[in-house]
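Student: Please help interpret what follows.
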Amino acid sequence: MMHEFESLRPALAYLAANEIGLIENAYEFSRSAHEGQFRKSGEPYISHPLAVAGLLASWHLDTQTVRGPAARCGGRHAGDGR
């Protein structure tokens, strides 16, 4: 699986360019905040929020909902209970 924003872009085609930009900004913030962190599986930490955003986009949900997984994980660490 590709763990880059570009892998999500086709699923976002239903959104306006400025909305895609908001989602990309949330992704970049989260990716940089978790640079060098990996899941127990060995995948980059960002892999799960990216997969969830892709699922939400496949349902054509609104921008705030799709960007939520990446926006929420920017300052969190796995297992911190928040």
The two ends are 27 Å apart (CA to CA).
